[in-house]
């Protein structure tokens, strides 16, 4: 299955001008528990989807109170720099929706 | 004091709120009204240009309700990161709005204005002393990059607000601030635990974004006690749930367990969220971990040049199949015509929506395909005139470019507008995002008391 099938929120946003952060909030605690146990959302998979090196991932944190996983990465360019196409970083989540999950 | 109530009318000053929700908030007799007025989200432009991403009339509307309500109730009103970015011009434009309201409504009060803009010489001196370090992935700061800055601001903590309260301010208008400060300052001055006061501020600064359904333009109330706090929306159509409140710890943060700020971080590892009623959530257990030294986050921008853009589209399948070649050809024609191959101060770009638009910053992600493309031609140059010239020339060259297999020989582009080109003005980029070690949390942020 894909992440979009088991998540109620998948979003991206700047965390300051030099970082991008992605949040996935799962539909229920049971699914979240399985994903966490299998570490089904992982650095490797994320980096493969976005074509970035693993050294660019600053945090990948499972956050139990919100049944969520958060991934924070180096922003490829600082927000608003020349070449920008998403100043707020709010539309970088689409590839993550298609992440293949095996649990 | 066993309990302290904080009213947060809206997520950003100027985003508005229903008067009914605000009245409900005042009916609960809050101890302070607090509001965040800024963000770096809208990008570097606003700090450089010295004006706000919010609209002055909308800011005036919000303040013209908040100020008289606070004065009537005899409680302070605290506004942080005035004017969107909190440098001097942003604070001044908000001071002007407040003066206008005071005049129109015949209000008299003491207002503290807290400055958060730093002089370049001061930053250079601190840099030489080794007190400035990059924050996360930001590059090292040099004296040259400080000299290039238009404005440099520092995020104050709650301490300057507390000092302004001691000075008897009824309204506090502060420059760049760490978001939770205006919400936590009164509580911390009254001896409530810092961890809970800051965590509550972190939630309240986004107002009803934390509720379900979420809204950046509706009111929230926080009630702080010695061992816990409760947050609730003030519009009966919204609810706070343990999930909506817990999930908010993720929003725009790098790591939901550790939220760093001036003087230390709040730690959420032991935090619990409990549903008290269908719209109230109680939070406990958050801890504060102080840092050995006190650090202030600095933000600064430099001017890159001036921008002109031209949005243009195509629906021609042959043109679409040749688009990379067309762009290469147009670029080389422009560079040749103006002899600009070796110029480092010029930027010519073609953003191709329908192929690689939104996801442009991740070149390895798959390209989109579409039977239409929107191309935004962009030129950035040292003067507006030069940017206009380059954009105009690139646009006319692309319009008539003879690509391989072309059969639509009248023109390659569909322009949605006349004029087709748009002058965007100054262009800025962030060049300071650093931590400054300070000896005293108040000293870098001078307070001026005004009698209105």
UniProtKB/TrEMBL annotation, chain A:
InterPro entries: DUF4387
Highest taxon of the lineage: Bacteria
Pfam families in UniProt: DUF4387 (PF14330)
Domain DUF4387: 3-99
Name by which UniProt lists this protein: DUF4387 domain-containing protein
Source species of the chain: Alloprevotella rava
The organism's taxonomic lineage, starting at the top: Bacteria, Pseudomonadati, Bacteroidota, Bacteroidia, Bacteroidales
TrEMBL record, chain B:
All copies of domain Acyclic terpene utilisation N-terminal, residue ranges: 60-208, 239-396
Domain of life: Bacteria
Pfam families xrefs: AtuA
Protein name as annotated: Acyclic terpene utilisation N-terminal domain-containing protein
Species this chain originates from: Alloprevotella rava
